[in-house]
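Service request form, structural biology core

Requester: graduate student, group of Dr. S.
Request type: structure prediction, single chain
Budget code: on file
Notes: please return the result as structure tokens.

Sequence provided:
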Amino acid sequence: MRRLRVDQDIRSMSEFRSGIASFIKQVHDTKRPLIITQHGKGAAVLLDVAEYETMQEKIELLKDIQTSLEQLENGEGFTHEDAKSQIINRVIR
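Core staff response, request fulfilled:
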């Protein structure tokens, strides 16, 4: 996802309502999120679908890494050599 541009990517709810189609096109074309405000405070974020899916994949990967780190801290992991040996043994069979 590209970096937010404050001057272009923050709009009020009334602006958004009056130009929904153009804002959806902007998000799709720029790959930047659009922040929608209500009463001067952030109310919602509009994202391109592909950018949202990429974010979800990154979050899942980070969760997997965190789980792996926790398993290693709890002594549930394998050394690199042990893992390599197990894989080689499975391939050879």
